[in-house]
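User: Okay, second chain of the day. Same drill as before: sequence in, structure tokens out.
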Amino acid sequence: MLLAAVSLPALGQEVEVASLQRLLEGVEGPAYYPVLNSTGDRLLFSCEDGSLKLHDMADGVTTVVTRDHVAGHDACWGGDGKVYFVTQELGEDRLVYRTGQCYDLHTRQATVVTPSQHGTVRAVPATRGGALRSPGKDYNSSGDIGQAAWTEGSRVHVIVDGQERIFSPVDSWAGYLWASLSPNGKRVAFFAAGKGIVVIDLRGQVVAMLGNYEMPCWYNNDYLVAQNAKDDGHQFVSSQLLLLKADGTWQTELTKPVSMAMQPTCGGGKIVYTTIDGLLYEMKINIYP
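Assistant: Same drill. Structure tokens below.
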């Protein structure tokens, strides 16, 4: 399905939705938590049973990364082109154990890189590779993984020039989520519960507050895409995608609230998102000053 282009003017700027295409229609069941790689030619997504798959946008081939349950749908692309993810299982002691793994696209094999352990394990993308962070044993794909950003509680962790910096730039009793570096590595965006999307520089100084939206992802160095979801305390009643200027001066809607669009990911000039029913879409836009 390819839709006609529409224009969304706002405050002297204009965004053109040049194309909107359904992905994997009739091929896959409901798909959630999509993750594009930086070039936008490969896509990770989670299935209803928690397994993880990889779709090649060029040749249309979909591969199973793991049939195990991916913890918190926690999977990412490393700067080395590999996939880093965390699986979980229930132990005999009725506790949940999580295992960090790395998937190589060339061998189509997943390798365990952190032992099974009780507690939070998170996959962290980096500009030259990837990492797994946990209270037990951490893992880095190499001695120099480049720049990286992630959250733990109400702290943002950023690796710059091989050194880890830790910031708590805004108060948030419920913590931070969804940290990511801008493509040029100069800023970090994250979500602070009760405050919304925060953009900081590499010294931890707040650059902009973008509004109480979720799941921010960098479209390019100047714009982010985010989810604006509303609920009634029990279920979502609306959800849409917004385009936000990184300096906080401008925003516009990319989809209507009734679209139930959520969980955006960006890469290679593309925006991919899913709906509440697990329908994947690819959007391409043009931004005019």
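The mean pLDDT is 93.

User: Thanks, on to the next one.
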